[in-house]
Amino acid sequence: MLLTLAWGSLFFPGLFALCTWALRRSRPEWTDTDCVMISTRLVSSVQAVLATGSGIVIIRSCSNVITDS
């Protein structure tokens, strides 16, 4: 569990920094605020997709989600 937390603590800020850097290089006419806003939305979208995927895996692997552990 701690390993997953550690990887998540590195992955999401790293993805944000990479997206912000790439947007600043590819779109120099955009302001810093624009780059940060798009990067934030992209990271949030990736997190939502991963959370949905893990929820689907949990629901499909349990016969009763409320009582199974």
Automatic annotation (TrEMBL):
Keywords on record: Signal
Signal peptide boundaries: 1-17
Domain of life: Eukaryota
Name this polypeptide is given: TLC domain containing 3A
Organism from which the protein derives: Sciurus vulgaris
Gene giving rise to this polypeptide: TLCD3A
